[in-house]
Amino acid sequence: MGESYETLESFLQEQRLFPPSAAFKKDAVATAEIYEKGKDPEAFWESMASELHWFKPWDRVLEWNLPFAKWFINGKINASYNCVDRHIQGPFRDKTAIIWEGEPGEERTLTYSDLYQEVNRFANALKKLGVKKGDRVTIYMPMIPEIVVAMLSCARIGASHSVVFGGFSAEALRGRINDAEAKVLITADGGYRRGKVYPMKQATDEILKDTPTIESVIVVRRVGETLQMAMKEGRDYWYHDVVDAAEDYCEPEQMDAEDMLFLLHSSGTTGKPKGIVHTTGGYLTGVYATFKYIFDYKPEDIFWCTADIGWITGHSYIAYGPLLNGATQVMYEGAPDYPDRGRWWSIIEKHKVSILYTAPTAIRSFMRWGIQWLEKYNLSSLCLLGTVGEPINPEAWIWYYKYVGSERCPIVDTWWQTETGQIIITPLPGITTCKPGSATHPFPGTEAEVVDEQGSPVKPGGSGYLVLTKPWPAMLRTLYKDEKRYIETYWGRFPGKYLTGDGGKLDEDGYFWILGRVDDIIKVAGHRISTIEVESALVDHKAVAESAVIGIPHEIKGEAIAAFVILKEGYEGVPEMQKELAAHVRKEIGPVATPETTIFVGELPKTRSGKIMRRLLRDIATGRALGDISTLSEPGVIKELKQKYESEEKE
Ligand code: PRX
Q: How far is the C-alpha of 326 from the C-alpha of 9, rounded, in Å?
């Protein structure tokens, strides 16, 4: 564990202020009136929606039947039309939409009209394979332009996409395909990561026998000859074959504003990932407006969001937000340290990136690697920096500001979630005076509070639960096939208030500070993992009797996974077993969920009613004084655990 990782205390003592510079303010897209306008959310969001193309306008802006929201009632709209067709009819026809860089170094550029052609053809190909409005299509691909094409093609014909992060295992993919009951799987032969080829199609073959709803598999050739795989006659098709054979034009479906645009699984507080449902009109409006104002978007900008499309950040700020705005964006396939640790900076220099949107975990890695990697490159094209995914510690904020932005670029620390669909708490560059570590204020037209145990707003200076108190257009509408869980998870705790699952603090100046999750979700390098998901994977192994998983502070990743494991009779807690369990979790979920530390124990601390007291495990793992142990059924357990943990740490 790192020495320099700051504590919550130092976070909250941060006093430095960073007002926007006069130079930035002068040309900023958002001006102070935007907060005035946001005071009437319906009027504000209506004006944002009217900047998009609608086949038929809405009758009413919002129907709020708590906790069910409908936005832009009876409006008809198509996402792919708005991302592509709208631009090629205007001056952006030949504007570059995507500058793609493959990890091995190749480059591809797609203009808006290239994207239009590809999307139309692939949409037709999907139709030919029997995909219809209302169907679900699972996408499991590396970061290549075809992933955006695939998403927009689904949207064009009214099918909902369900993208599964390419770093998840085939097992995790299986669960998500079956939950979505997807008809088609779109994948690739493989991808590149740190100079190595990893197979995708071959990996999916193992699970396709257990996904009864899949009728066809479409495979993009990314890697080529080196990967051996079988193509099953009548089920598997090459992407280039089906696209080549398809007609040029596909009429976009006129979708109801409330039709499901996509489904995205995210970890919840039970083992089963939640299928988060996003609909069309409100989602597009939310991501369109937030992209425009938060990233201070101007037509000449080159935007780069480093997230993977498999996460919500990639959905909202690679696939939809930039394209809705007609932006040019960079998309990069691989790792930040391949072939060396200067790769990102070389990309910024080469493509003259002006807006960079990344995660604190990446910034912390760069801090550790040293500024010599940045100094080799000209980063003067950068105008604005953003972060997302986890709290950014002030030390990392300052480093980002100083070394990446040369004290010239504002930083937008954007707080949001898979569920919120769009950024909710964020500075607006050109307006907000930033405090490093604080996501500052709710975006215009949205509202947040920090509340106490009873649900009453805390006074400035207080901390508690972060909740959202007004519906917003890109909010999730429900959990797929699980309305009950939707109501309970988000609306069950405080009547009328959306529970984010995060702790928050409101400071004396009314700034919001996000204190991290208050539930059993951990953020490993910004990736959302539920402790229960990892526990389920562990107990699924034949040697494991019981396990408890917690998040522990980690210098680079923010949090890492520590697993306490009780082995069954006859198995030994040896290093080989640690390795075996780690490999097992990787297979079940994916590398992001691999425990950093596995400690074999004889007992777990439990209450008398049998609940594992994770709080005590956290105290042990972080070396804190133990909290209240009066409810512990076997107080002796703690001593053994402490000794075990400490001896493990020393090794
Ligand atoms: O804990 C918060 C953290 O990420 C969670 C949402 O994770 P996910 O659904 O994977 O979406 C991540 C990308 C939008 C939140 O509940 N989080 C996200 N952004 C921030 C953050 N924590 C602090 N500061 C942020 N800027």
A: 42
Q: What residue's CA is closest to ligand 1, atom 22?
A: 390
Tell me, in angstroms, the distance from the centre of ligand 1 to residue 197's CA: 30
Query: Ligand 1 atom 4: the closest Cα is on which residue?
Result: 389
pLDDT at 155: 99
Give residues (CB < 6 A) around ligand 1.
266, 311-313, 388-391, 413-418, 439, 500-502, 514, 516-517, 523, 528
The predicted pLDDT at position 5 comes to 41
pLDDT tens-digit series, residues 365-409: 999 999 999 999 999 999 999 999 999 999 999 999 999 999 999
Strand partners, 303: 329, 355
* Residue 2 pLDDT class (50, 70, 90 cuts): very low
Token digits of residue 500: 């984010």
Report how far Cα 559 is from the mean position of its chain's Cα atoms: 16
Q: What is the pLDDT of residue 634?
A: 79
Supply the pLDDT for residue 623: 81
CA dihedral sign of residues 311, 85, 156, 261: positive
Q: How far is CA 415 from CA 54, 77, 515, 523, in A?
A: 29, 28, 11, 13
547 exposed, middle or buried (CB, 10 Å; 0-12, 13-18, 19+)? buried
Q: What distances in angstroms separate CA 302 from CA 33, 96, 362, 379, 410, one per listed residue?
A: 26, 10, 20, 13, 16
The DSSP secondary-structure symbol of 3 reads: S
SS3 label, residue 626: coil
* Ligand 1 center to 275 CA (angstroms): 17
Closest residue CA from atom 8 of ligand 1? 417
Q: Report the C-alpha gap between 131 and 147 in whole angstroms.
A: 17
Is residue 34 helix, strand or coil?
helix
Substitution candidate for ligand 1 out of 168, 390, 463 with most atoms within 8 A of CB: 390
**Which residues does 221 contact at the CB level (< 8 Å), separation at least 6?**
188, 189, 238, 239, 240
Q: Which residues contact 453 (CB under 8 A, 6 or more apart)?
A: 464
Question: Are 643 and 601 within 8 A, CB to CB?
Answer: no
Question: Which ranges of 259-359 does DSSP label H, i.e. alpha helix?
Answer: 281-294, 312-314, 321-324, 343-351
| Strand stretches in 338-398, DSSP E | 355-358, 384-388
Local structure of residue 233 (DSSP, 8 states) = T
In the DSSP assignment, the letter for residue 458 is P
State which ligand 1 atom lies nearest to the alpha carbon of 521. 1
